[in-house]
Amino acid sequence: MEKQYYIYFLKCNGSVKIGKSTNIKSRICNLQVGNPEMITLLHKIKCNDRYAVIEVERTLHTVFAEFSTSGEWFVLTNEIKDFINGSHWLCERIIKLAKKPGQPMCESAWNYVHDVLIDKANEYRYNRIKLESEQIKLVI
Questions:
Q1: In this structure, which of 52, 55, 58, 140 has its CB flanked by the most CB atoms within 10 Å?
Q2: Counting Cβ atoms within 10 Å, is residue 56 exposed (0-12), middle (13-18) or buried (19+)?
């Protein structure tokens, strides 16, 4: 059986841990030991291979670096919530980031990151348009 690789977003109080794992449940259990606050899974992204998951995690850590509190822990900001909900702004930011010299990303991993973000952006736009159209129907 082929291993499944995931990027996860774990919430604990007002913080979020952005990491990678092949077994998210086990990872949560390990982090929960000795932690009196409940850790919950906010979101996960399935990656196609070990290299892609490393690149996606590194890219997300770089994009959200300004919100970092310690290691892989970040303040759960509106920007991170927007990403989880599929906002398009992040895709544009990652495109700019990936083109910077000194921060190489292998082509297959970059294509994967790009596809994931485009899918999330399209889903976000579709849900927003659907919601707006439902609101218009309520008004009419």
A1: 52
A2: buried
